[in-house]
Amino acid sequence: MSAPLGWLRRAGSRVWAVAHVAARRAIEERAPEAAASVGFFAVFSFFPLLLILVAVSGFVLADTHTQDQILSSVLRFLPVSRELVSANMRTVLNARGAVGFIGAATLLWSATSAFTVLVNNLN
What we know:
Blueprint: H1 2-28, H2 31-44, H3 46-60, H4 64-77, H5 82-94, H6 96-122
């Protein structure tokens, strides 16, 4: 009976040693900070991506009937008033050139920052 328990103890001590080294290295390499940075920039990239999609869809879907269908689809998922969403959507669609440019510039900055943090922490 002591042979299986001895093997189990050795395996347990090896697992504990690997976990200890991994945790120490993660703290030394500032892994939590790197994970938070990548997460922040990844989430920050979603809004500019949505702006670009709205701007592009404004050029592609210029028909008001199609815009009304999109508005009704969006309102099923957002618990806000129809007038607020409609006014914001019309404002964005009217300024789609500037919105698309601002969205593209912001997306480029945030995506570049996310990959810069990722590359710096992988090296």
